[in-house]
Structures are given as structure tokens and as C-alpha cells.
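To make the argument concrete, we let one protein speak, a sequence paired with a row of C-alpha cells, as a model reads it:
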Amino acid sequence: MALTPDEIDGLRELILAVYGPVTEELLRDLCRCITAAGQISSGDEYKLLLAKSLAGADDVIADTLRRQTDLTNDAVDQLMSWAAEKTAPLEENESLRNIAEAYVKVTRKEVSNVLGQLAAADVDGRVYPIKDVYRRTMDYVFRQVSSGAKTPEEAVRRATLRLWQRGIRTVDRSDGRTFSVEFMAQRVIMAKMGEMTTAINEKHHDDGGCDGWEISAHSASAPDHEPYQGRQYSDKEYKRLNSRLQRRIGTLSCKHIAWPIKLGVDSPQWTDEQLAEMARENAKGITYEGRHYTQYEATQQQKALENSIRQCKDRIAAAQEEGKLGSGELRSSRILLRQLNAEYKRFSAAAGLRTAPERLRAAGLGRVLKPDGTLEMPQPAGSLKRGDGTLDIDTARRRHLEYLDTLTDAPDRVKMYLDYYNRANPTEYRMAPGLHHAVAYSETEDAILYNPKAEGFDGLDFDDVALHETAHRADVLNMRSHENRRFRMAIENAVQDVKERMELFRRIAPAIKQLATKDIFSALSGGELFEGSGHSKSYWTAREDNRALEIFAELFVLEAQNSPELKIVKAAWPELWAAYISLF
């Protein structure tokens, strides 16, 4: 067994996502303090504000790092264990388990160092420790505004420009250079993961009496590795080759790995013809808007677009704080984000490349880190809690609005309700300590009720939950799916179809990854399929309307997210899909 190229890509993407919360939270707090400085002209008032802001920054930094460290430690444990198991079965080999456990400890320490060297860019673009940047940027804005040199809007925008352009940084202790926190964490974790998988493979090499190595091969290889991929080498040849390469094989700085072989016994996985064809296809590449890209160059252009999207999200975070002074930056930034997302999808489609979410799905990775070892992108509701255990609704709403801005492929009928119930007529969130479920929409109270102490609350993906409950509100106040005869009849026909073809749907079930799709299968099978993945069997029989209400909400979610799993529903139950569309 070995990590596949898709899995390596997915792991990189996941690590970037793990570190999104820390950079966004610190960036927002910095911008809040900078904006406050732009609203004061009195020196005495400013001294009080500065003292209060710096004291508050200590709390924000400490709290953010504490929560991020907890999340990171959990992520490292699961990512490293998952990668180790993909490399070799550890259950019956104590020495391999010891190797994996040792690397987990080392990696946790290394990423802790990443978080311990936080920095940011000042107005002049130079990087300083993050606490110094609070003082320096606030001083700049106060001086500019109090002297009349700039308006508050101009001063704040100038002070935050370098922040969102460069993001929250961290210092590399080895050479003093600075990198974005997300990139540095990704580099550290992937490097240690590469060392771990190499150590496991070397143990296999020695225990198995191997005398050589085979390097994996994949499409769109980088030029420095393409001549060597798919080839077999003796121990001596492989060592000499790897020592010459600037990016060593097995470090996961690329998507190549090497596994132990017995020369003359183990046949190569790829023929010379197959490797030559990969090279030809790489060189052929694509022509996009008049420019030719090799397949490898196309992957690099896609990564550049992904970086631009991340930078634009930082720009939005800064602009939301600047907006208190009347800046028009927020609207233009959101428009830019939509344009970047659209271009990213167009380019990726033209190049035949998986987008970031697709890379995660292809790697078997989803959206939250779960105790059972399945890996998903993190945006758990638990990370939105305050220190007292209550949900920070303002932060949750703000982040959800940013998430909605990324749903550029959602159909207009869905966007209309998402915009209305999140901006024009925002849904109320109300804490309900007695609620048996973590989250539920209440028709009588016209509010989303939540219990932050309920079992499973901390692991919920807030964006998915908010989408789902917004769909319930739109349905109850507008479509009334549970009262629609056509929709209910289509559901009954689909239920009968599932009963008659249960074995077929059982075979299809392992391919279903998204919770919304699983819930639809569960509803139609009365909980026989995906029991434990969502609603219980008793839920489907407790109330006649439940099937219609949940199926509508889940179809709404799948449409909003432009999920590829919608095609399964459309193909299996076209009558149900048509009835759903007719409700709008």
C-alpha cells in the first residue's frame, strides 16, 4: 500500500483548511483595532484605546492559539496515523507502530513551533512579531488621521493593505524567513509525513530482504522528476539519484513516493510505453485563452488561482472591519471572489483538473476530523464557541456569509432564498438549553434553536447545518413541501422503488460521501440505509411530514453546493426531482 497522488493532494488541501481559522481570527482582530484607531483624534483617548487593544490582543492571541493547538494536535494525530496505515498495516507490527507514534510526537512539536512564531506585515510591508504589528499599525492610523494627512477610510485601508496581501505569517527558525501560517504548517506536516512513510518503507525494505526501489509515476509530473518516475533502481542507484535531486523523492514535496522491491523479481508497475505516453500528454497540455500550458504548468496555475482566492478571503475579512468606516471595499472584494471562483472553475474544467473540494473527495477526505479516522475539512461548530461554552453567533453568521459568497454555482432559485434569509431577513438563532438535538428549526418560534451542550454539537459543520436549517425555514414559510401532493406522491413512489431495489441501493451506498445524500437515502429506506449517519429509523415514523421536510432540505443543500451527487438523485428518481423543482 502507498499514498496515491490524489491522497497527497488531498492531504495538502486539508492542512491548509485546518489553519484557516487561526489566520482569519487574528486578521479580523487586528483590523478591528486598526479601525477603532481611525475613529479617534484625541491623544489621551488613543492611549487608552491602545492599552485596551493590546491587552485584548493578548487574550485573543492566547485563546486563538489554544483552540488552534487543540485542533492541530487532533489533526496531526489522525493525519499521520492515516498516512502510516496507508503505507503499511501497523496493527500486528509493534516496531512500525513505534515509528508512527514517534513521528506524531515530533510533528506535534514542530507545528507548535509554527504557531509560536506568529508575525504580520506592517504598513511598509516588513514583517514583525504580531503584537508589534498591533501597535505599529494603530500608531500609523492615529497619526495619519489626527494630523489630517489622511481620512479615516484612507488610513485604515492603507494600514490593512499589507495585512491581507501577506496574511498572518510565521517565522522559519532555520533561516529567519517568513511564510504564511497555512503554507508553513503544510510544509512541516507533509515533510514529517514523508519522513515517516520513508522510515516505514525502509523497515519493510530491510525486513523483506529487498535490494532496490521503484518510484511511483503520475500524470502532470514536474520536469525535475519526470525522467525518473516509474523506474526501478538498485539501493545504490536510488541513494545516488535522491542525493542529487533538489526535491528528494519520498519527502512529499511532490506526489512521488518510492517502495521497496526485489530487483529481477518484482515487475515494474509501468511499462516504458506508458511512461512515454504520460510524458507526451504532459507536454501536450492545454491551450487556454491563447496560452499553452503543459499539464504540470496547468497544475501550478491552478494553485496560483487557489492562492488568489485565499488572499481574496483575507481581503474580505479586512474589508468587513473597514466597512464600519463606510468603505466600499467589501462589495468589490465579494465581486472579485465570485470572479476568481468562476475563473478557477473554468480553468480547472478546461485543464481537466480536480478542484480543491474534488481533490479532498478523491482522496477520501471530507470536511471535519472525526474520531473514527475519516478526515474532513474543519469548520466545526465547537470552534465557534466562546470561552463560556456559548456559541459566538456574530462570528458564526459572518463566516457563514463568506461561505455563501463562495457558492457561485448555486442556481438562482436557491441563491434568492439564501440571500433573503441570511441578509434581508436574517434567520434568528436562539440558544435552547433544553433542546434534545444539537440544532433544529422551530416553525412556531421562526428561529433556529441550538443547544451547545448537546451531544455531537462541537463536531457539526456549521455551514452545512446553517444551509440545512435555512432550507427548512424557506420551505416552511414559502414552499410548504410537506403539504404538496405532487411532492409527497413522488416521495412515496421513490420509497416503493427503494424497497423493490434495496440490494441495488445497498451496492450504490458505499459511493455516497455527502451527508445530505445519505439522509435522502435514509429517508426513502426508512433508515435501512445509512442508519446512524443522520436521522434514526424512529424519526422517519414519528411524524408523517418528516420525510418531505428533510428530503426538501437536503435537495436544497445539494443544489446550493452544486454537489456531483445530485446526479444520483436525478437518475434514480426523476419524478422526485421534477416535483422538487416545481415547488419553487
